[in-house]
């Protein structure tokens, strides 16, 4: 008996491995699967981490990252891709150079710079390479509050600050921007600003009380990437991803010694 198999779209995560399973490529693969896309990965770094912190980082050789990307694109061409932890200038150069060959593959760049615990996940010298070489090739840039502040060179304290920063980053790099304002103080909602140069959206969701997790930014960007791979327009993908990540937070479950994990 012949069984007809439905073909799933493919999404690619380029980023670091989180040994605790809460962030990085592990979080991305969970969200890809939850939304019905086949997840592939190109690992940039292996980290020793758990919900309390990052205890070690080992970057892969640039040649190995390039080999991973080539292996994926040769046989499993992704309909959309995202980057997370890139860590160093040589690794950023590999990704940027690779995307010159595949400019039609939408690229979501989550500029992972510093972990919630304070660990440096992007070398200071690599920030310039990120801005000059990769962001101009991005379809969407998804900085959190601290990352957006670093990119624009000033503190962001209000929703209006988010809006101005999103417009500034869009004008500078030519890509759509989603500034995530979940860490804004004094707010009763998790508030984000999406700006693509022609339209602007304010996305809101109620805070889920009593939940503290890491990996939310990875999961959010992965949800956007999965929705793009499934055929959504960028604006629709962002709105649906906001709902998906809010739901993942609301369904969080307990693990280990009193920690919480997202449930996509």
Can you characterise this structure?
- The protein is of the alpha/beta class.
- The protein has a single domain, classed as 3-Layer(aba) Sandwich (UDP-N-acetylmuramoyl-L-alanine:D-glutamate ligase), CATH 3.40.1190.20.
- The chain is 38% helix and 24% strand.
- It contains 8 helices and 11 strands.
- It has helices at residues 24-34, 62-75, 89-101, 126-134, 145-152, 159-173, 216-229, 234-250; strands spanning 10-18, 38-50, 53-59, 80-83, 107-109, 140-141, 176-180, 189-195, 200-206, 253-255, 259-261.
- The chain has a 9-stranded mixed sheet with strand order 3-2-1-4-5-6-7-8-9. A two-stranded antiparallel sheet has the order 10-11.
- A hairpin with an 8-residue loop joins strand 7 and strand 8 (189-195).
- The longest helix is centred in the C-terminal third of the chain and has 17 residues, at 234-250.
- The chain is globular.
- The model has no long low-confidence stretch (mean pLDDT 93).
């Amino acid at each position: 008996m012949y069984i007809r198999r439905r073909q799933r779209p493919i999404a690619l995560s380029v980023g670091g491995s989180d040994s605790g399973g809460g962030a990085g490529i592990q979080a991305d693969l969970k969200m890809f699967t939850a939304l019905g896309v086949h997840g592939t990965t190109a690992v940039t770094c292996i980290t020793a981490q758990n919900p309390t912190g990052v205890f070690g980082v080992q970057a892969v050789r640039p040649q190995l990252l390039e080999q991973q990307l080539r292996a994926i694109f040769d046989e499993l061409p992704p309909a959309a891709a995202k980057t997370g932890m890139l860590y160093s200038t040589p690794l950023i150069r590999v990704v940027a150079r690779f995307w010159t060959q595949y400019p039609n593959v939408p690229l979501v760049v989550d500029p992972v710079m510093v972990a919630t615990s304070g660990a440096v996940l992007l070398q200071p010298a690599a920030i310039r390479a990120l801005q000059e070489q990769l962001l101009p090739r991005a379809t969407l840039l998804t900085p959190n509050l601290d990352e957006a502040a670093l990119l624009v060179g000033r503190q962001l304290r209000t929703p209006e600050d988010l809006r101005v920063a999103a417009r500034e980053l869009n004008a500078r790099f030519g890509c759509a921007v989603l500034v995530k304002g979940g860490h804004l103080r004094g707010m009763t909602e998790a508030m984000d600003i999406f700006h693509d140069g022609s339209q602007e959206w304010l996305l809101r969701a109620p805070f889920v009380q009593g939940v503290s997790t890491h990996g939310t930014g990875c999961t959010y960007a992965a949800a956007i990437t999965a929705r793009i791979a499934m055929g959504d327009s960028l604006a629709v993908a962002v709105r649906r991803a906001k709902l998906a990540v809010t739901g993942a937070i609301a369904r969080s479950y307990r693990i280990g010694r009193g920690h919480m994990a997202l449930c996509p």
